[in-house]
């Protein structure tokens, strides 16, 4: 009997061999890499040991799960209580569909962080303040230490309010941000083993605090570190922040803020004040000051530190071209918009010479970098005061930009001297999800979306890497839809969901809402449409991740959202009416779309808005789905079901005019405007009466693009639900109308906040307030995978995917979709009446494959005819469970494995 394949890709809390895990019963996951037909798991056994030697001896001294009958390739740790700062070793073996046992997997590990506040035994420190806390102030901290032996393992547990760059012996080993509330602050665990040596060492940090803003809650500056080094002589050395640390001002000079949103300074660096080697043992810090000790953690205002289970990946991007302007200024072009910091290497600086720099998205007619276009009124300048000789300018804070203008550099600068350090969230694989097709413009748009989503992920999902580096709920939801399918990302999404759950309990626990942006510096701030959309985000994340913990965490909030919607149902109309929230202004009672011009004339002057009601219908539907997945009591599910049906009936009765859906109503009258928003959402949520589906779908398709990047997923969902792939391709590829192809035609390299932010009819003050690096518009990646590649997720408990290529619009497509069981790969081609498709269904899963039948009505799998078949329930091909036909479509239910299908 052939042995079952060995489990691989062992992950703890969705990470491979992670550090600083503070879950007390972390979830352990695995998969198998095979295309063997029907390969699946029927049982598993997990061992967790305190040492590698014990694990190798099959001694699960901390936990032996025993052989568990289960087809789910995941389990929560259930052994002895975990301890702080320890490494845990684990492995897994499986039994397959025939009962064959696998070999043990290779060993994996996870390390715990500091599980209790008292484990820190370190103080929060800062540079002494003369008065009020100064925004954007940069400080150095350093601590000398001597190690008596070689280092076998060393971990630094570090946090800052707000940002730090951690150095050991002069080398930067980590850069971090902890944009969170002081009572729920983040820390990171950093491996510093290789950075430390026997003998003299220095630990240093560059620290800055921004003050409150988007993504930055109110707080105060502080830095904390605990370093634990296990030495070769068997001893352990612990170094913590305390009164023995020294501090000095860093060479950033006082400067105005870039804008009022992010509270970052226009960085002006004075190289003459730079203290070279300040983080090395040879440096003399006699002139430095003692730090101010705020208090031993926990201390006001820092109550709790939470492990930050995500990091940042950085890479150097070289400039592609340089242009010299008439005044001698140089403009460097990096080819695309990235999130990053510029790096300029000067070979022969002059003492006191000031170099002005400006980053931006576009160039003016005279070649200069525009200070206005796409910047959202953000001051994107830098300044550098040189010292004599060779030196490098590298600022601290990142921006989104493509071009860098350098005025009066003082020397000739070549392409090799100017670069950008681009940065994004550390994702498992930036190319995990792929798509290529017979339509080049579709492919270009897909790459636009992939690039935008990648750089819209930083320490959190960001509204834009320029003005608002904050995490807006709908932006985060939209970006998360892409990152989970394009990169196999999980940890940033679950963090974001957790944070919005926290926003509910911090600000809205009594009435069921969530903050529109969180964390943030302006407290309670909600948008009704965002709150209503939260259950959909939870459900979609669960479908791709099988993250049951998120379902459990979010369910009480989802229930709160439902109660919030139901409370606003008007007795007379049965509709959600005057939905509270938005705090006046353009957010009041629901925004429909954003920015304002993306409403395309939606008639908002009604107490019952159609979009608000349809989002309410969907929130009730998803609440029932989430509750069912959690095995909640039937009365709870019946409540969701009943209220959904009642609201849905009222929507059709009051807001459907017999043909189309109008924008709103009151008890006596309704709007005469039938917007794309109203009708697309009705299609997307399955509310359209059967008799009107064709009419509504035609209306939506014929309107082209009349929804903005924030809400356009529902337009794509509507066209997918009504089986209109040609209309989807038109939306993606027509440069003459608003949309992604128009962005590309205008030279855009990142999705925008507003389709027509280059529209000459838009007032200048509004155009300048529209971001040209807004990743929320990348959601079309998801719908290309779903509607054009044809791959859709099923529920994790079913583990059955659906692969149904479109019946028109493209001649061919190939792509890969990451799943928890491995990549699902498909390639299909249409040639006249002949259709061919190859599909690889990952281990432990199945798929329903649907494809068109040709005039002969025949379908073969691996060369064997399965349609027509006298015994369709017993197909002649291994791995094929069932075949059936409906009209001109054949459906084949298959197990894991690679299948080649053809029809003609």
TrEMBL record:
Gene3D superfamilies: 1.50.10.10, Galactose-binding domain-like (2.60.120.260), Immunoglobulins (2.60.40.10), Maltose phosphorylase, domain 3 (2.60.420.10). Keywords: Hydrolase. GO terms for biological process: carbohydrate metabolic process. InterPro entries: 6-hairpin_glycosidase_sf, 6hp_glycosidase-like_sf, Alpha_rhamnosid, Bac_rhamnosid6H, Bac_rhamnosid_C, Bac_rhamnosid_N, Ig-like_fold, Rhamnosid_concanavalin. It comes from the Archaea. It catalyses: Hydrolysis of terminal non-reducing alpha-L-rhamnose residues in alpha-L-rhamnosides. PANTHER family: ALPHA-RHAMNOSIDASE (EUROFUNG), ALPHA-RHAMNOSIDASE (EUROFUNG)-RELATED. This is alpha-L-rhamnosidase.
């Amino acid at each position: 009997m052939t042995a079952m394949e060995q489990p691989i890709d062992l992950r703890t809390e969705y990470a491979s061999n992670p550090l600083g895990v503070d879950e007390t019963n972390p979830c352990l996951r695995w998969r198998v890499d095979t295309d063997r037909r029907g390969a699946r798991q029927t049982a598993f056994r997990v061992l967790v040991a305190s040492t590698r030697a014990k694990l190798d001896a099959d001694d699960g001294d901390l936990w032996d799960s025993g052989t568990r009958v289960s087809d789910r390739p995941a389990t929560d740790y259930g052994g002895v209580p975990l301890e702080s700062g320890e490494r845990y070793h684990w492995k897994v073996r499986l039994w397959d569909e025939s009962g064959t046992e696998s070999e043990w997997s290779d060993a994996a590990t996870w390390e715990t962080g500091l599980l209790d506040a008292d484990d820190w035994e370190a103080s929060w420190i800062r540079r002494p303040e003369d008065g009020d806390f100064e925004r954007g102030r940069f400080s150095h901290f350093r601590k000398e230490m001597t190690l008596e032996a070689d280092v076998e393992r060393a971990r630094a547990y570090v946090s800052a309010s707000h940002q730090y760059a951690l150095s050991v012996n002069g080398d930067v080993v980590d850069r971090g941000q902890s944009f969170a509330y002081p009572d729920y602050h983040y820390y990171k665990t950093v491996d510093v083993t290789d950075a430390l040596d026997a003998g003299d060492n220095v630990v240093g940090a560059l620290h800055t605090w921004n003050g409150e803003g988007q993504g930055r809650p109110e707080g105060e500056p502080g830095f904390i570190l605990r370093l634990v080094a296990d030495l070769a002589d068997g001893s352990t050395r612990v170094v913590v922040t305390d009164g023995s640390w020294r501090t000095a001002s860093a060479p950033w000079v006082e400067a105005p803020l870039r804008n009022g949103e992010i509270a970052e300074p226009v960085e002006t660096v004075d190289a003459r004040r730079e203290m070279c080697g300040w983080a090395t043992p040879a440096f003399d810090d006699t002139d430095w000051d003692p730090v101010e000790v705020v208090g031993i953690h926990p201390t006001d205002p820092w109550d709790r530190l939470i492990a930050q289970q995500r990091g940042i990946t950085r890479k150097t991007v070289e400039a592609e071209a340089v242009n010299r302007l008439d005044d001698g200024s140089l403009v460097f072009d990096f080819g695309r918009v990235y999130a990053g910091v510029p790096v300029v290497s000067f070979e022969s600086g002059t003492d006191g010479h000031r170099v002005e720099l400006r980053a931006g998205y576009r160039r003016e007619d005279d070649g200069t970098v525009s200070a206005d276009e796409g910047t959202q009124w953000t001051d994107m300048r830098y300044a550098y005061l040189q010292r004599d000789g060779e030196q490098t300018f590298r600022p601290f804070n990142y921006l989104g930009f493509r071009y860098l203008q350098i005025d009066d550099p003082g020397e000739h600068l070549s392409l090799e001297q100017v670069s950008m350090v681009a940065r994004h969230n550390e994702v498992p694989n930036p190319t995990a999800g792929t798509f290529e097709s017979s339509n080049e413009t579709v492919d270009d748009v897909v790459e636009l979306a992939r690039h935008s989503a990648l750089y819209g992920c930083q320490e959190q999902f960001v509204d834009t890497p320029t003005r608002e580096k904050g995490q807006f709920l709908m932006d985060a939801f939209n970006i998360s839809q892409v990152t989970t399918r394009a990169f196999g990302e999980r940890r940033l999404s679950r963090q974001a969901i957790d944070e919005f759950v926290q926003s509910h309990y911090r600000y809205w626990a009594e009435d069921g809402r969530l903050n529109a942006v969180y964390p943030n510096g302006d407290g309670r701030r909600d948008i009704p449409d965002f709150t209503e959309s939260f259950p959909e985000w939870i459900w979609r994340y669960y479908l791709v991740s099988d993250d049951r913990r998120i379902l459990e965490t979010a369910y009480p909030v989802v229930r709160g959202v439902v109660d919030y919607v139901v409370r606003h149902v008007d007795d007379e109309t049965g509709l959600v009416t005057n939905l509270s929230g938005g705090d006046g202004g353009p957010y009041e009672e629901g925004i429909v779309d954003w920015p304002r011009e993306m409403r395309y004339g939606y008639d908002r002057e009604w107490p019952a808005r159609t979009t608000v009601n349809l989002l309410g219908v969907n929130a009730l539907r998803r609440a029932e789905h989430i509750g069912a997945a959690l095995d909640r009591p039937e009365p709870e599910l019946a409540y969701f079901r009943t209220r959904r049906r009642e609201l849905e009936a009222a929507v059709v009765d009051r807001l459907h005019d017999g043909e189309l859906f109008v924008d709103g109503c009151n008890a006596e009258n309704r709007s005469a405007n039938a917007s794309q928003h109203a009708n697309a959402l009705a299609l997307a949520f399955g509310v359209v009466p059967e008799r009107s589906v064709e009419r509504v779908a035609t209306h939506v398709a014929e309107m082209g693009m009349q929804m903005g990047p924030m809400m356009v997923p529902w337009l794509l969902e509507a066209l997918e639900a009504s089986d209109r792939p040609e209309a989807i391709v038109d939306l993606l590829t027509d440069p003459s109308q608003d949309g992604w192809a128009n962005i590309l035609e205008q030279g855009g390299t990142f999705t925008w906040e507003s389709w027509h932010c280059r529209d000459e009819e838009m007032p200048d003050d509004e155009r300048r307030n529209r971001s040209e690096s807004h990743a929320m518009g990348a959601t079309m990646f998801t719908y290309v995978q779903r509607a054009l590649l044809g791959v859709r997720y099923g529920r994790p408990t079913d583990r059955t995917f659906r692969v149904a290529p479109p019946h028109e619009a493209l001649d061919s497509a190939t792509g890969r979709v990451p799943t928890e069981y491995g990549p699902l790969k498909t390639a299909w081609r249409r040639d006249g009446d002949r259709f061919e498709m190859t599909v690889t269904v990952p281990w432990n899963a199945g798929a329903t494959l649907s494809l068109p039948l040709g005039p002969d009505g025949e379908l073969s799998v691996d060369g064997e005819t399965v349609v027509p078949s006298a015994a369709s329930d017993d197909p002649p091909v291994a791995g094929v469970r069932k075949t059936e036909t409906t009209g001109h479509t054949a459906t084949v239910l298959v197990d894991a494995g690679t299948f080649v299908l053809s029809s003609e």
